[in-house]
Amino acid sequence: MSFELDDLSAFVAVARAGGFREAARVSGLSASGLSEALRRLETRLGSRLLHRSTRSISLTETGARLFERLSPALAEISAALDTVHAQTDQPAGTIRLNVPANVARTVLPGILSPFLTAYPQIRVEVTVEDSFVDIFASGADAGIRYEERLEQDMIAVPIGPATQRLLTVAAPSYLSAKGRPRHPSELLEHVCLRLRFSGGAPAMWEFEKNGEIIRLDPPGPLLVQPGSACDLLVETALTGLGIVCLFEDWLVPHIRSGALEVVLEDWATPFSGPMLYYSGRRQLPPPLRAFVDFIRSHQSPTQ
C-alpha cells in the first residue's frame, strides 16, 4: 500500500498542532489542504485517525499509534534530506527547539542573532514550554532545560550563563509599607506573587544559606503559569502589590532602575545554568550540528 509523504506529514502536523488552523499557521499550508490530505489518508487506511468536533480534534486509538511511529520516522527523513544539503558550503534546513520561557527571553536572543547571521540558510523554530516534555514526541530536534529536568540518554551542552540565581524582589513602595523580610520564614507574613505548575500546584520558594535549606509555600493573591505570564508577575510587583521570586536575568533591568529592590539576597544560592540537550543515539542533522558547534565555540567558562 503506497502513501503520499505529504499526506503523512499533514497528519503529523495536525496531530502535533492539535487542530487544522494551528497546523496551517505553522506549516504555511491551508487548513482546507490539510483537511483534504487527512481525508485521503483515512480513505486509504480505511480507518479514522482523528475525532473531529466543531471546536477541537483528538487522536483516535489508531491515530495515536500511527502518530507515535510516524513522528520519529519523518524526523529521520528530514535528517536524511538535511544531510544532502550538507554537501553544500553552508548547512541548510530547520532546527526545532523546545525551551522554557526564561531561556527564550534571556538566553536565546543573544545567541540566535549571531547564529542566524552566520548561517543564513538555517531556520530556527522555537516552542516555549516550561513543563517536562519528550522532545521527540513534541517534534523538536533538541531541547533546553536545567540539569535536574534533562531526559535520560541525552548529550547536554551548556548554553547561556554558567550559573543563574532566583532573586526575591519587591517595589520600594511595598517594602516601605510592609517592611523588609530579614529571613525567608518572614515571607509567610507577606503578600507573595507566585508561579504554579501546569498541573496547578504552586512552585515552592527555596532558599539556602550556610547549608540550611528552607522551602516555603507562602500565601499570595496571584498565581500564574510560567511563560509570558511571568511578565504579569513582574508588572504586578512593580505596582507595589507584593513580592516576587524569579530568574535574576528577568529582573535585572528593574533592579538597575531601582523600580524593584532585592531582599534576602544572601539566601539566593547560584545554580547551574541551562543545557542544550539532544539524543546521542541519532546522527545529528547538519543544521543542529552547526548549532551545537556554534554554542560550544562561543561558550566561555564564565559566561
TrEMBL record:
A Pfam family the protein falls into: HTH_1
HTH lysR-type domain residues: 3-60
SUPFAM superfamilies reported for this sequence: Periplasmic binding protein-like II, Winged helix' DNA-binding domain
Keywords: DNA-binding, Transcription, Transcription regulation
Origin superkingdom: Bacteria
GO MF assignments: DNA binding; DNA-binding transcription factor activity
PROSITE patterns with a match to the protein in the record: HTH_LYSR
Keyword match Cytoplasm: no
Keyword Transcription: yes
Entry-linked InterPro entries: LysR-type_TF_proteobact-type (IPR058163), LysR_HTH_N (IPR000847), LysR_subst-bd (IPR005119), WH-like_DNA-bd_sf (IPR036388), WH_DNA-bd_sf (IPR036390)
Family affiliation: Belongs to the LysR transcriptional regulatory family.
Protein name: Transcriptional regulator
Origin organism lineage: Bacteria, Pseudomonadati, Pseudomonadota, Alphaproteobacteria, Acetobacterales
